[in-house]
Amino acid sequence: MPIYQTAYYQVEEDAVDDCKKAIKIFLDYIMANEPGTEMYLAWQQKSDPTRFVHLFRFKDKKAHKTHGASAAVKQFESIYRPVLVSDGVTFTDYDLVEGKNSVLI
Question: Which residue in 48, 54, 47 sits closest to 22, CA to CA?
Fold first, then answer.
């Protein structure tokens, strides 16, 4: 059963570019190494570029666990955690009710 999750966080203004670079590297890793991570989108808020939301869809619990235990997650965390403005990252799990899926990029 798929796992749907979001992650919200805010970073210091002078750390935005570094975080965006780290997101790119992180996504490259996910695309090459995590077939069970079926969707991973990173969005930056237009009205406040220091705020980010990541949207995930994992194939199952095993894929979620594989993602969370990866060295790439730890590397990404080492970039954004020291510059967080928010009190950590807020992860929220969801159940899909209905939806439409089409090419995003």
Answer: 54
Cβ contacts of residue 102 below 8 Å, gap of 6+?
A: none
- The enclosing domain of 81 has a CATH number of 3.30.70.100
- The structure's pTM equals 0.91
The string of pLDDT tens digits covering residues 25-78 is 999 999 999 999 999 999 999 999 999 999 999 999 999 999 999 999 999 999
HSE-CB at 71 with a 13 A cutoff on CA atoms is 1
Tally of structural domains, the chain: 1
Asked if the structure places residue 30 within a domain, the reply is: yes
Q: Is residue 104 part of a domain?
A: no
What is the distance, to the nearest Å, from the Cα of residue 15 to the centroid of all Cα atoms in its chain? 17
Contact 85, 15 (CB under 8 A): no
Q: What's the pLDDT at 73?
A: 95
